[in-house]
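> tool_call: predict_assembly(chains=three)
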Amino acid sequence: MTDMPLLTVENMNKVFPVGGGFMKKPLDLYASRDINFTLSKGETLGLVGESGSGKSTIGRCILRLHEPTSGKVTFEGTDVTALSPRAMKTMRSKMQIIFQDPYGSLTPRMKIGQILDEPLRIHTPFGKAERREKVLEMLDHVGMRAMHADRYPHEFSGGQRQRIAIARALIMRPSMIVADEAVSALDVSIQAQIINLMVEAQREYDLAYLFISHDLSVVRYMVDRVAVLYLGSIVELAKRDDLYSNPVHPYTQALLTAVPSVKKSERRDKVYLSGEIPSPLNPPAGCPFRPRCERAIAACSEEMPKLRDIGGGHMAACHAV
Amino acid sequence: MSNATQTALPEQSRWGREWRKIRGNKMLVTGGIVLLIFLFAIIAGPEITGYDYAKMSIRERFEGPSAAHWMGTDNFGRDTLARVIHGARVAFFVGALSVAIGMIGGMTIGAIAGFVGGVVDNVLMRITDALLAFPPLLLAIGLVAATGPSITTVSIIIGIIYIPRFARVMRGAVLTEASKEYVEAARAIGQEPWRILVFHIGPATLSPVIVLATVVFALAIIIEASLSFLGLGVPPPTPSWGGMLSESRAFMTKNIWMAIFPGLAISVAVLGLNLLGDGLRDYLDPKDY
Amino acid sequence: MIGYIINRILYLIPTLFIMSLVVFSFIALIPGDPVDAILGLNASEEARAALREELGLDRNILVQYLSWAGGIVTGDFGTSLTSGEPVMKLIMEKLPATLLLAFASILVSVFIAVFAGTIAAVNKGNWLDMGILVAALAGISVPVFWIAILAVLLFSVHWQVLPSIGYVSPLEDPIGALRHLALPAICMGAALAGGIARMTRSEMIEQLGKDYVITARAKGLSQNEVTYRHALRNSLITVVTFTGLELGTLLSGAIIIETIFAWPGLGRMAIDAIFTRDYPTVQGVVLFMAFFFVFVNLLVDISYTFLNPQIRLGGKS
C-alpha cells in the first residue's frame, strides 16, 4: 500500500446560485462547504447524512459531474480539478460511479451489451470481438447471464439493473467507485445481495469506495471509515468502530440512537432532535447545528467549528468537545 | 460471484409480445389498414382502373357510380376513381416530403436548442415562436402566392411551416431526457456530448416525434387540398383532391358524386392518419421503464 | 399581475418583428421580377417604372423593409394596387363580416362540443361515448370545405331552405342576415367542434373522478347537479383555452368558408388580392390577420390567468 492516499479532497466548496430574476440577484446555496478528507487505495469511506446534507454533491464534484466552485481534488497524484476536458475524459476510466435509481441510470433504448460495450469503446483499443468477450465476462462476474446482453433495461428487475450498473462501473477497472445511495432504492433482501457483490468486487479489484448513504446500518457493514455530514459540512470523521462506539458530535449521537438494534447492549437512550434542518440558503451563524444542540456554548453562535483531531485520528467539528 | 435470482420475464419471444400488443391496439390496426389500402392504390396507380385519368369522353359525362365506373365520371367524362387514385399520389407525395423536411429541420433545431441551451436556445425559440404564431394555412397561402404553385414548392413550403412544431417537440423531449440520470451516467464514463445526444438521448425522443409526424402528415394533406381547392395548389390538369372538389362546385346540380368521392378520400386518409397517430401514441408510451 | 401583462406584451415585440420579416419576404420570394408578375410581359416601360417606384422596388432592400415596417407601426398597411385605397381602410371594411362569422362559428361549435363532450364523459365507456368520440374524430379529419360543399348540397340545392352564397348586414335585415350566416357558421362550427368535444370530454372525465365530486355526492347532491355545476365550471376554463388555441383553425377556415360562400370578409379579400396580383394587399391582410391572431391569443392567456390563479402563481401546468 502506497503512502500517498488515492484521493485527497481539500477545501472543496460547491455553491448553487438560486432564485434571482430580472432585477434580483440570486442567493448562494452552499451545497458543500469546506470539505476535507482523504481516501486510500482499497479503502471504503462512508459519507452519511440526511437529504440536503450535500453527500451526493461531494460524490459528483469529485468526478466533476458538477464543477466544484472552489477547492482541490487530487486523484492518483493528479489535480483533477485543473484538468482539461480531454484529459478528464481519460481520467474518468479510473473513477466511476453507481447511481441510486436503477430505473433511471441505464439508457432505456440501449441493449445491455451496448451499455457495457460503450466504456470499452471509449477507453480501450480492443476490437469488437474482444470487447464482446469482456462484456460477457463482466456480466458473468456480476451474476448475470450471457443472453442478457441482448435485452433492454426495462426487462430487468431493480436488483438486476444495479448489477448491470456495477458491471458498467467495473468494466473499466477503476481504482475508485462512488456508490451514491447505490442500494437505497432496492428491497432489503436485494440490498444484501448487491452489497455482497460490491464487497467481492472490492476484494477482487482492490477498489476504493466512497459509499454515500443515509442508512447507518448499511454503512456500518461496508465501511472502514465514516464521515458524517450536516448541512453541507463534515461534522465528524472517524474509523468505523470509533464512530459507532464513541460518537462525539451531538448530531452523530442523535443519528446513532435512532438506529434500531437487536442487541440490547447496543441500544441507546434515544436523543430526540428538536427543530428542523435549517434552510441551506440561510444557515445560522456559527455552527449550523447550534439551534438544535443541547450542548451549545457561546462560541457556537459566533464561529463555525473546524474539523479537528480529538484523539487517535477521530475528527470532529464541535466547540463543545 | 453471487448469482442473480430469476430472470425478470418469462422466456417468450420478444417479437411475439410486441405483435400481441399491436393487435390489441385497435386504433393502430385500423389506421394501419386504412393507410395500407391507400399505399396499395398509390403504388398500383390509376392504371388499375383500366382508365387513363386524363382521357375525356363526352358520351360518359356525369355518370354516377356503376360497374364500369366505380366512382362515376366527371364533367369531362373522365373516370373519377382513376383521378382519385392519382390525387392520392399527389396528396401522399406532399405529405411525405413535407414531413421529411419538417422532421429533419425541426429535429436538428430542437436538439441543438434543447441540448446546448442558453442564448442559442433563446434565439432559436424566439424565431420558432414567431413562426408558430402564424395560422398554417394563412402562411402557406401567402408563400405560395409569392412563389407560384407547383407540387414540389407546395411540399417545401408546408415542410418549412411545420419545422417549428417538430423543433418544439424535439426540444421538449431532449430537455426531459437530458436531466435524467442515464445521461449523467454517460458523461461519467467519459462519452462525448454530441454522441450522448445522438445515441443516448436521441432514441428516447423518437416516440413523440413519430406521433407528431403522423399528425403533420395529415395536416399537410389538408393544407395541400385546401390550397388546390382555392386554386393555389397543384395546377390543373393534374388531378388533386382539392382541385377536384373545387371543380365539382359548378356541377352540383348535375352530379353530386363529383363532390362526394374526392372529399371522402381526403376524410378517410386523414382519419386513417389520425387513428394511426393516436394508436402509435398509446403503443409507444408505456413501453419504457 | 400588471407586471405579468407587461411582461407578456414585451415578449411579443420580437415575435411581431420576426413575423413582419416573414411577410415582407413574400415579395422577395417571387421568382423573377415582381413587376413582370403583376403587369405581365407586355406592359410599357413607363407603367413598369411607375409600378416599380410605387412598390419601392427601386430602393435598397433594407430601406424597403424599414419604410414598410415603419408604415405598419403607424397603421399604414400599404396601398392596394387594384383599388388605390389604403389597405387598412379595406381591412376595416371587411373585418366586421369576418368577426361576425367567427363569433357565430364559435357559438355553434362550443354549443355542440360542450354538450356532446359532457354527454360522452358522463357515459364514459358505453356506446354513446364511443359514438361521440368517433364523430369527433371524424369532425377533425373531414376538411371544412367538404363539409361546406355537402352542406350546400343538402340545404341549398336539395332542400333549398338556405342561401348558398352572399351576405346581408344584420343591421339592415336581421332575418336575412341570419339565413345567410347559417350555413357558413354551421360548417365552420362543425369543423371546430370535434376538437373541443374531445377536450371537454377528457377534462370532464378527469374532473368527475376528483375528490370534490365524490364529496359533493356524499353531501347529497344528485349526479346531474354535480356534473353540471361543479365539474362543468372547472372544465370550462380548459375549454376557453382550447378555443383560444383553435383560433388559428378559425382564421384558416374563415379564408376557405368566405371563398365558398362569397362572404365579404378578410379571407376572401386575401384570396381576391392574390388572384389580382395585388401583393401589397396580400401582405397587408396576411400580416393583419397574423397580428390579430397573436393579440387574441394574448387576451386569452391573460383572461385565463384571471380565471385560474394557479397559473399566475405557477401552479398547475
